[in-house]
Amino acid sequence: MKLKVLLTGLAAALISFSASAAIEPYVIKFSHVVATDTPKGAAAEFFKKRAELLTKGRVKVEVYPNSTLYKDKEEMEALQLGAVQMLAPSLAKFGPLGVKDFEVFDLPYIFDNYDELHKVTQGPIGRSLLDKLEPKGIKGLAYWDNGFKVFSSNKPINTVDDFRGQKMRIQSSKVLDAQMRALGVLPQVMAFSEVYQALQTGVVDGTENPPSNLYTQKMHEVQKYVRVSNHGYLGYAVIVNKKFWDDLPADLRGQLEHAMGEATEFANRIARQKNEDDLEAVRKSGKSVVFVPSDAERNAMKKALVKVHEKMDDRVGLDLVKAIYKETGFDPNKM
Ligand code: LMR
To answer: Is 192 in the pocket of ligand 1 (CB under 6 A)?
Structure first.
């Protein structure tokens, strides 16, 4: 009798152990540095919903927004170490990883609009850039849009000359460093999470970002002037730890790819409107003066900045720059 009880108990324990092992979900920690109410923040939440639904709960996605888990540089290291599984860093942040090519997206005025950009991000050039991440233990899944950048500062930025001598925060891209220097600006690399305070305390005079980041971080409250320059693009590569990804059961990977496809479509659908709405909100707040340059003023800035392309050929690769020109029809000699 005793043996029977023991065996029954053992069998029950085994069943419950294997059942709990079977239902233990795979966890994707998705860390990012922006607010939830931004194109990237909203798309991360969208991905979570769809991924959990399509995998019927076998995958759990935990989204950590606003640098709550890691700041810019740390999150890249955390991904490689497997402390988080998914990120969507801006394309300007891949240099320190040793993949400088992504800084091509930072070249001022290289894309005039989202259509031109999508020819690159949704075509073979975009794919081949993502493939360059694999030797770093990273798999690139998709590109998500944010938008075109505005300049902001506590000093006037109406003319190109106004920029001279100002201090501005940049992301870790050497192309952005060259862009600022072409304007006579002293660039300062800084984590996104530190920008608001640096602007508030005067550590830097200004910065650049699409309106969605400016507004959701309340940077406009500590910036007197905003110039709607649309001088460059800011977007993201969604990346995963390659080992984690490759080790997933194939059916789950397929479902996650599907969810990522939907999230990408969602991100790229909302990005433009979100930036338009947030620029309008900045205007309405009355906290900073929003200046929209005339065609002549825009051309003056373009003239000052397009020379950065040639300067940075070596950094990002001349062949890549030419391939993008061919795809978009950009002509650096045409103003
Ligand atoms: C920045 O650091 O300015 C942006 O890249 C933040 C982001 O992820 O949009």
So the answer is: yes
Nearest atom in ligand 1 to the alpha carbon of residue 89 is 8
Under a CB-based contact definition with an 8 Å cutoff, are residues 28 and 132 in contact? no
Ligand 1 centre distance from Cα of residue 68 (Å):
14
Strand order in the sheet with 86-87: 59-64, 26-31, 86-87, 233-241, 138-148
Query: Which residue has its alpha carbon closest to ligand 1 atom 5?
Result: 90
Nearest atom, ligand 1, residue 90 CA = 5
- pLDDT, tens digit (0-9, with 9 covering 90-100), for 274-323: 999 999 999 999 999 999 999 999 999 999 999 999 999 999 999 999 99
C-alpha 129: how far from chain center: 15
Joined together, the tokens standing for residue 27 give 């966890």
Q: Looking up tokens 């940075």, which residue turns up?
A: 312
Q: 10 Å Cβ neighbour count for 299?
A: 12
d(CA 252, CA 108): 40
Superfamily of domain 24-328: Bacterial extracellular solute-binding protein, family 7 (3.40.190.170)
Asked if pLDDT for residue 13 goes beyond 70, the answer is no
90-105 b/e (C-beta count within 10 Å ≥ 16 → b) = bbbbbbebebbbbbbb
The CA distances from residue 284 to 130, 215, 280, 281, 289, in Å, are 39, 11, 6, 5, 10
**Nearest-atom index, ligand 1, CA of 192:** 2
The finding on whether 229 has its CB within 6 A of some atom of ligand 1 is no
- Answer yes or no: is the C-beta of 230 below 6 A from any ligand 1 atom: no
d(CA 170, ligand 1 centre) in Å: 9
Residue 175 exposure: Cα atoms within 13 Å on the Cβ side = 32
- Ligand 1 atom nearest to CA at 93: 5
